[in-house]
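Convert to structure. Protein one:
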Amino acid sequence: MGERRSACLLAVAVALQAAAVLGGGEQRSGGGAALLDPRGLEKFVDELPDMPRLRGYGVAEGGALVAGNLTIGMYDTTWKFHRDLPATPVFAYGASRETATVPGPTIEAMRGVPTHVTWVNHLPARHFLPWDPTLTTAAAPGTRGVPTVVHLHGGVQHSTSDGHSLAWFTAGLAATGPRFSPPPYAYPNRQPPGNLWYHDHAMGLTRVNILAGLMGAYRVASPGEEAPLNLPSGEAFDRNLVLFDRDFRADGALFMNRTGNNPDVHPQWQPEYFGAVVVVNGKAWPYLRVRRRRYRFRILNASNARFFRLRLSAGLRFVHVGSDSVYLARPVATDRFLVAPSEIADVVVDFAESSAGAAVLSDDAPAPYPGDPGDKAETVAVMKFLIEDAAEPDTSAVPAALMPHYPRPDAREAATTRRITMYEYAKNGTDEPTHLYLNARSYMDPVTETPREGTSELWDVINLTDDNHPLHVHLALFAVLEQRSLRRVDEFRECMVHRNDARACGIDRHLAGGRRHVVPRQERGWKNVFKVRPSAVTRMLVRFKPLSSGAASPEESRFPFDVTTGPGYVYHCHILDHEDNEMMRPMKIVR
């Protein structure tokens, strides 16, 4: 008992010292300025910006493509989110302080051509947003500076370049985390063409640093494979849309709560952050002038916790061509769709299908998602499209087949089956969460998942919580095979909390007769994020080998780097507030 008390006292001392270093956000988070009423901001007055584009490759004499070398900084600067808001203090990525943007520049890479990025931390000694030192947090006692580390989400890279949450570093490398890897980060880009994004991944600070502005889009292109598809292309007709929600104070400062839902346990942490202002490409409720033709929109949900259920007015629809980082085999048309935090929907919209002069993109997803049964969510605007009157020739198309040559998911190839259980723990006598675990273990507990390179595994993900959790697995791709609801879930949850043994708690009995849920057609391909339904079991085939066309040789079933070395990989819920409070586990790949 004495040793445990000493350890607790040491942990508190370290947390207080870290808080003194990073600060509590009192410097520039708006002080006592009132919370902004978003109804006072006029919608559709700012034009949608296209973020700066950085080429992630070089061109040698003769036109051959060679590895690219970029230096991208993280800067303490300001950003205008709305015409009528004062400039807002933010953290932003950019090639320089003057060109830093929120979101950051779009990196354009080429398949098979490496991109090397030196990420440089120029952030100040103290954070301008409040954060919670009682979480397991990237902070070194006795040093000053805001820790950061960059993860390329959806990227297939060595773990030394994966942005491990304990590989953080402060300005000037004055302090580094225990899994730090020196720059530059190497991205081989030896993966199928598709959509990725980069963002901060520092332990315990991810939700705060991304809220401050540290995120950006990344594309892997393959002209030889993509040009024959004849999808809309070019900077005018192929646009990234980065969606997120924020709250502001009247002076323009970003607002984040200072008081937690369980302040005697976690002074600042709350289970989810939701803002009342919807932001697209750094502008609140923007507009975009479009021609009466097809456009391609790569839609990323970069929110901390908000799900978006998107719909277009004026009779327009979406045609999905990709999900996360991989093209679909065939296009899928929908009138509306749900996109979770960190998910990417790659869609084509044909504005010639409507005679209207404008169309509004709107959202009606409950927050938190899925909400309580019977709750009716408010429909809110996201952005507006102003459609030109004149029709014009459009040589682009959506083909009947996209990339059907990727292997189809086959459960028979699984080398083993694992059960991953999602837990939410609450303070005694309340429903207020204190932390969330995977398999009843904290992030800092020893590794329990050791997949073998070149194999696939079946993962049965058991969600015992009331929330939908977007599960993200680093390095791997996966395909969802089925989702089944649990029966008498309270009884099963009670047993699992005490025993953490699905078989002993009779999981087969609780699944018997449970409802089977249809996986949306646009989400049946290979993904790196999936929405794990509450009170249900989601079965997924997780692929720990490269995604290649047709049957792969033993050599092609290995990654182009040694996955067994380095700090390793992780899997986690991508609701950032959950990830920061232990809903993440380490993963070690073996041979």
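Protein two, convert as well:
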Amino acid sequence: MATATLARHSLAHFMDLESIKYSIAAQPVSRRQSLHLFYHRCYHHKPCSVVASMNGCQGNPRDRVPIGSIETRTFPAVTSPALATDTLNLAISEMKANPPLFTSGILRLQVPIQQQIEAIDWLHSQHQIHPRCFFSGRRQSKDFTEVTNGNGYQKSNNVVSVAGVGSAVLFRNDHPFCYNDWKSIKRFLSANCPLIRAYGAIRFDARANISSEWEPFGSFYFIIPQVELDELDGCSMLATTIAWDNAFSWTWEQAVDAVEATMTQISSNVVKLSKEVTRSFIISTSHIPSKMYWDLAVERALQIINRSSSPLAKVVLARSSKIVIANDIDPIAWLACLQVEGENAYQFCLQPPNAPAFIGNTAKQLFHRNCLGISSEAMAGTRARGGSMALDLQIQLDLLSSPKDHLEFTIVRDNIRKKLEAVCDRIVVEPNKAIRKLHRVQHLYARLAGELRSEDDEFNILSSLHPTPAVCGFPTEEARLLIAETEVFDRGMYAGPVGWFGGGESEFAVGIRSALVEKGLGALIYAGTGIVKGSNPSLEWEELELKTSQFTKLLKLEGPSRQKIENSGIII
């Protein structure tokens, strides 16, 4: 009870909260319940440009009827973002004088651009328009869609990444994501309009109290962007989406006015990011838990796992690291740097109005659905890459032969297979156990695929696969309860599903290798590691350091050594 209360008020002044937790463990419940009042942390945000939109989750789900019209209109291709913006503005102006007959609908207007513009560069040029989102799939993924240039020419393009600002429809609530919420999102989507998508994320544990830094995200947060730039292979596309529903007191006229307000702020001057971050000094670094309390937490978890009467085989414990540097951390610039080493990974950004940005570079896929086809991946066990081919191979063989890592990986793979078997007729596992090599690390890996019996099973897949043993443990409920008792910070969307829903296709990654970033406030970097029989607290701590290094090394966070500081008379 005490730990659940404290978790909601996590990261209070980024002090050593574990010491508070251990000191109150023996106190009366009433006393423990009141202590959290002293540790509430408030976020102070810089104002951003926000345009009103409707929340598609409002009202009684039983009263909702199908959307009257779902349509995509494609205009002739142009040569620049400026011409694409002009085309969209003209189209919006003409449609304003000719409103549709439907009382509800969603309309996407898209203009192909005859040059490939990086979506991350476009997003960085949009000067703090919120909300904003970004999602980039793996470079080798086959996310194909048809694009028509308006002159009868069709070309099959690979969607590389998508950046969006504003929200044509927002889907957010504080209650746990449920079937009705999923239906509310799917109501605005159609397989005939594959690029109308809802991008967002879901909390790791919707039953845990929401701390202040995660409040704007709610229990789940999805948007269909008002304006987006789709980066394709060899070209791009600028699009705007208008959504209305009189039942939600959001009329066509209001929707058009909101889109026009966002379009006036869109910049067509896209500057390419350098994908390098300026060298800066670390002002402060703190971990929750500290190394001492991490060791205690791991030892306690191992005691439970090693009990003959305990069903717990694995638990994933996480760490939150607060980093403040001398300069502001720009979340979009930081994300652009992560792209350099993320060819086999997903990159994402989700930022509500007046809130930090949740960004990440994760290799873990939760699932990908294309019509009835479904695939997922099992990844567990982590090693660094070697500095030479010989060393890299030696590390690979060590990972493949490690009993501890094999146990951790087998738990993850077999659990995912069991979940897929519940809604699929046949599951294929290929490869059964292999190595997935990334820029800095390598993992044990397996791919699982099957065919859903019904498209409605998508919600069942999402709700059953999350949380996987790779980010929670096994059995799930026993691991979740131990995490809630042990961790004194709010994971928020860290380790939760992050991705997009489409009409005929959806894709979600697992939101690990991630951080919550705010200009002027620094970053909260999250990492976790699986604890199984044979785990060593110090080695697991080293694994946390390895996983967070993709953020710290990219920033080149190099300050003067402590010895030099002390010798100069400066005390930090």
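The longest helix spans residues 403-421. Residues 1-46, 141-156, 557-572 have pLDDT under 50 and may be disordered.
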